[in-house]
Structure formats: structure tokens, C-alpha cells
Amino acid sequence: MNISSSFRFCRFTFRKCLSRRLQWDTCDRYYCSKSSSTDQTRVVQLKNKLACGPSFQDFIKSSDKTYDACNDEHEEYHIPECTTARSLKVYFETYGCQMNISDTEIAWSILQKAGYSRTHELPEADVVLLVTCSIREKAEQTIWNRLKHLTALKKRCQKHKPLLKIGVLGCMAERLKTKLLEQEKLVDVLAGPDAYRDLPRLLSLGYRGQRASNVLLSLEETYADVMPVHQTPEGHSAFVSIMRGCDNMCSYCIVPFTRGRERSRPLSSILEEVRMLSDQGVKEVTLLGQNVNSYRDFSEQHFICSEGSTQLSRGFKTVYRTKQGGLLFSDLLDKVSQIDPDMRIRFTSPHPKDFPDEVLQLIQERRNICKQIHLPAQSGSSRVLHAMRRGYTREAYLDLVENIREIIPGVNLSSDFITGFCGETEEDHQETLSLVREVGYNVGFLFAYSMRKKTHAYHRLQDDVPAPVKQRRLEELISVFREEAAKVNMALIGSTQLVLVEGESKRSSEELCGRNDGNVKVVFPKTDLPIQPEKPQMVPITSGDYVLVKITSANSQCLRGHALIHSSLNDRKTSEHLLSKQTM
């Protein structure tokens, strides 16, 4: 700060202090005539406190002088004195998408460093945190019901659990702050998706009897320096967040308003986390983001100055200007896939507009990038897609599907669909059903439309499709989807699938289950298997193993078969060749 600007700052601060003194003088005269003696005493105390403040001479002597008003020391957040740092236990409940699972891991990492421990048993908890979803009304209603249950539990446990605090994290915290804190008074702490670093302070305020919240959205927060504490089943798979927020502004979607603008995590931070997971023996990593394939890293100057520009899928457009510079999703996918050739790489959730040929060709070339693409269509009607502001037509979407299957033969496709969007007619609905039949997906996420406040549809469109019609159309869509998924899966009967084992089947302890490259569940009997075809030594199958499974039956939900041999991503071709020689 130069001398001129320093003096202007001093003059402004002095005027501010002088203005406050005049205000207190005015208040003093008012209270002397109108208020009680208690109020007068309070005013005197405030005037004395103000008198401790800096004078004009203080600013003239040194503009850099720091000031500690009335010798008050800064009060840091703390865990209550009646407990020790390690005695407070936090319990998480996670609702919604995979991003919320990732958020839970980030929030737990932050609280762990602040001295909290974690419990997976609700009765042991001192802090209950719900990581929430606002994408649909049904998801929010589930959380409202859970909060009422937890509040009743808190009242019943007041004697032996006086410190129990309830908090809401994530999208619902940002969207419904006032209702949660002030109207319903069901929670002690609220933290939006970009405020998890503030959790220790917010909980400290909660322990002082205050209701605390921070739901501010950030243009920069990616939690790049926070290493998530992964809670993976048997350690075989993990989610890695690579970007946050969304710029697409689809008319039905609340995400840009609850999670903010797109910003990408630095490449170096992502690679560090994936290397750590590889060292821990993780066999599958899913890269996460609201619009994962629009990743663009501007963390370093030479990335910013690079000439790369957004390359959209042919026939697609955006509501925002073309972005320039940075490392793209294809760069990230290339680097991540090279870390561990025996680690599967998936990514979700993408937008169809961000599938240029270089991304598709990389998926085809790399053995460990799964040949499965999530391609959310939302509707099969160009008219409805225009109302949704999706940036493409039915024809452009089908052209993309054709291009994907040409570059990646045998690729598995999954999708999202919404029934009963604003203005959807029976003809529009039939076009959606015909799109499902034409493409042939093996996995789908299907929902009836639920209008969300703040969205473009809420302000500009009418939710004019009756609820019974939405539900009927949803049931019809589910029926058609299952028919087509069954056809796709039954085409795999007789094939050999490489399966990453997840554990025992939910229906039988005598069966194991896992997922193939296309992310379809595969169930098979529990048995010991040889490591190599020529060697008779048999080894049990455990979670995290790759095994080759011969498919013998299928339905719309899963594949069934029998395991042949232990294998890996690198050895699959060799194992299949040796097995085929044995059967000849």
C-alpha cells in the first residue's frame, strides 16, 4: 500500500469511527429519555467500549498498526470443555448421488483433523450429519422425515446425551437454510457443498447454544488439498471427485443453484489421490463430477495460456460461451489411466455434448478405461429437449450414439430419463419410448418430473402434466427399458466376462457378485479357482479379485454364470486363450 492510498484508508476509517460515535451519542440521548435504567447502562458500556478504540492520532502515527479492541483476544473454535478432543463421535448418513458419497469423505477428513472420531452406530453419536440431496422432491421428503425422527430422538436422549447435535450438509442445506434453521428448527448446524472446511467452527458455535450455518457458494473451492478418507467396501473401489458445479443450466435442474459454477480440481491433486488409492490396492476408481467430461484445469499459468478450446459433440451447443485454455478431460483421462494398468477407470456423470472423438478414441485404446458410457438423454422428443435447454435434438443424440458405437465396438450405454416434464404430450412420451427401443441401454435411471424452485422451468414454464399421468408414463418407460435391457444382457449369454468381485450376493451367502466392464451385476457360485490354467493349485475368491465368468443366463437386472479362473486386466487375453486351448 503506497502513502497516498494508506492516507485515504486512514481517513475513511476515521470517518467511520467518528460516524459511529455520533450514532451512539444520538442513541444515548434517546435512551436517556425513553428507555429503562438497564438500557441506559448498556449504552454507557458500549460507549466505554468505543472509547477504547483508535483515535485519529493512531492512524497518523502508523497506518499499519494492528488494533486489539478493548484487549479482547480472538476466540478460536473449540470442542466443549466437558469433553476431550477424541471423545466426540460423528455419525454420517448419506443420501443421493455419488457426489454426496465423495462429499461425506471430504467432510469426514476435515472433522477427523479437528479431533473428532467416527462411529457407524447412531446411539454412540454426539454429532449426526446428514449429507443431503435436493434433485427431487421425494429425496427431500425422505430427509425431512428423517430429521423429525432424529429431533424426537434428541429430545428423548437429552439427559444422557446433552451434547447431541444434528447437522445438514450438501444441497438441501443451501436450498432450504431458512426453513431448516428458523422455521422448523430441526437442526443445529448447516453447511453447504462449498463450506465443509467451516464445519469445526460451525459445530463449535452449536455447542455454545447457537444455530450456525454457512451455505455460501464458491467460484474456486475444489477441496484440492483435502485428502478424502475413503470408506470403500473391502477396499476394492473408490470415488474421486475431479470437478464441482455445473454451467449447463438445464431448465429442470437445481444443481447450478445448489452447487454453483463449474470449477475443476488441479490435475496434480487428482493424480496424487489416484496413486494413493492404487498403493492401497484399490482396483476401480470412478471419476466424479456434475458434468465430469467438461473438466478443464486452469491451475497453472501455462494451462491457462494453452490453445485448447471446447470441442463439443457434433450437433450439440451450450448456453455459455466457448471456453479456452486449460487441460481437458481427455488429458486427465490419459494421465489417470497410466497410473495403474490393472485399475479400472470409470467416470460419471457426463453430458452428451462433451464427447469429442479424442475422448472416445482414448476409451477404445486403453484397456483399463471401461467400455461403458453414461449418456443422459432425458427425453426422446426434440421439442421437450428444447424446453429442457439440453442443447441438442433427438437426431443429434442418435448421431452421437452411432459415432460412439463405431469408435468403441461393443460399448455399453446407460442413460437418464424424465417423464412428465412441462408441456410433455403423449406424442412426446411415445418418442421417448421409441428412443429407448432404438438405442438399447443396459442400465437406466428413470424419474417422474419434480419441479424445483430457482430453476428456469420454475420461473418460465408450467408444471402442467398431472401427477397420475407422470406416474403412468414412468411405469410405461420402466417396462420398455427393462425389455430392452433384457435383450442387451441376454446377448451376452455364452460370453466370458471379466468381473471385479464385490462380495457375497445379498440373496445367498453361497454366491458371490461383482460387475463386468459394462457395469452390469454378475452373480456366480462361490468356489475356489486356479490362478493359472496349467497349475492345479486352487485359491478362494475374495473381494477385489478379478475373475473370468462364463455367462449362462441373464435378465434385465443382472447376468448369471460360473467362475472359471482368477485373472486381471492385463492377463485377461492370455487366460482366455489358455482356457480355449484346454476346451479344444
TrEMBL record:
Domain TRAM: 490-565
Source organism superkingdom: Eukaryota
Catalytic activity: N(6)-dimethylallyladenosine(37) in tRNA + (sulfur carrier)-SH + AH2 + 2 S-adenosyl-L-methionine = 2-methylsulfanyl-N(6)-dimethylallyladenosine(37) in tRNA + (sulfur carrier)-H + 5'-deoxyadenosine + L-methionine + A + S-adenosyl-L-homocysteine + 2 H(+)
Keywords: 4Fe-4S, Iron, Iron-sulfur, Metal-binding, S-adenosyl-L-methionine
A molecular function GO annotation: metal ion binding
GO cellular component, one term: cytosol
EC main group: transferase
Radical SAM core domain residues: 232-487
One GO biological process term: regulation of protein metabolic process
Co-factor requirement: [4Fe-4S] cluster
Pfam families: Radical_SAM, TRAM, UPF0004
MTTase N-terminal domain ranges (all copies): 88-208
EC identifiers of the protein: 2.8.4.3
Coiled-coil intervals, chain numbering: none
Family: Belongs to the methylthiotransferase family. MiaB subfamily.
Protein name stated in the entry: Mitochondrial tRNA methylthiotransferase CDK5RAP1
Organism listed in the record: Cyprinus carpio carpio
